[in-house]
Design brief:
Blueprint: E1 2-11, E2 14-24, E3 28-33, H1 40-47, E4 55-60, E5 63-64, H2 70-76, E6 77-80, H3 92-98, H4 110-122, H5 138-151, E7 156-160, H6 168-185, E8 188-192, H7 196-202, E9 205-210, E10 213-218, H8 225-232, E11 236-241, E12 244-249
Bound molecules: adenosine-5'-diphosphate and magnesium ion.
Amino acid sequence: MLKIENVFSGYGEKEVLKGIKTEFRRGRFYAILGPNGSGKSTLLRTFAKILKPKRGTVLLDNRDIKNLSAKEIAKKIAYLPQMSNSVPHSTVFDSVLLGRKPHVFFEPTKRDLEIVEKIIHELGLTQHALRKIDELSGGEAQKVLIARALAQEPEVLLLDEPVNHLDPKNQIEILWLLKKTTNDFKIATIVVLHDINLAIQFADYFIFMKNGEIYREGDLDVIGDVLIRDVYNIDVKIIEVNGSKFVIMKS
Ligand SMILES: Nc1ncnc2c1ncn2[C@@H]1O[C@H](COP(=O)(O)OP(=O)(O)O)[C@@H](O)[C@H]1O
Ligand SMILES: [Mg+2]
C-alpha cells in the first residue's frame, strides 16, 4: 500500500536519504531501527509528505503522494513526530478529537465522539479527559498525541520514537495497543524504536538504517549479532529464552 521507489531526500544541499526502496503492507508492524543520524526521522517525514523527495516517488495505494492534497493524505496517513517540548494547551479530549478533523465535514458526529472516547479509554486517559495537556506528565502527554494519531483512523501510522518518554509499563501497553490496532484494522504501522528488544517483541518486520540507506530489512531472522555490530558498532550477544530472541549488550 505504501511503496517507496528510489527516494533521495534531505535538507537544502544536504542529502540524507540515498536511494530508499521498500514497500509496506497492510496488517504489518514495522520497526525502523538504526543509530542516531542514520535518517530514520527523515524517512518518516518523507513518507508523511513533510519533506519532498529530491528524486524518486512515494506511492500510497499506487498514487504518487505529491499529487495528493493535505486532506487526502491526512485521511490515510497519521504522523507523530519525535517528541517536541511544545504540547497544545487544550484538553485531552479536544486534542484527541482533533485527530478526527480530516474526517469531519461540518461538526463532529456521534461516531466521532465515540471513537475519541473509546481511544481515550483504551489508553487509560479517561480520568484525565478534561484536563489540559500541559498539566500532564511528559509520558501522559505523549499518550494523548498517540491517541490523536489513532483517532485519525489512518491506513498508515507513522510514529517517530513514540515510547521514548514512557515508563516500561506504558511502553508495553502502547505497543500492544498499536499491534492490536495494526491487526484489527489491517493498517501499516511504521514505528521508529531505539530498543531492539522491544522491537523484537512487537514488530513483524525490521528495517535497519545506516547512513541514509536501508542496510538490511526482513523478519526476525535478519536480527543477528553481526548485523547489530555492523549497524550500531556495538558488541552484542543474542540469546534465546522460551523461543524468543533477546539482544544482550556486551560492555
Ligand atoms: N531540519 C534539518 N535540517 C538539516 N539537517 C537535518 C535536519 N534534520 C535532520 N538533519 C540531518 O539529517 C541527518 C539524519 O537525521 P535524522 O533523520 O533526524 O536521523 P535519525 O532520526 O535517524 O536520528 C542527520 O545528519 C541530521 O543532522
Ligand atoms: Mg530521529
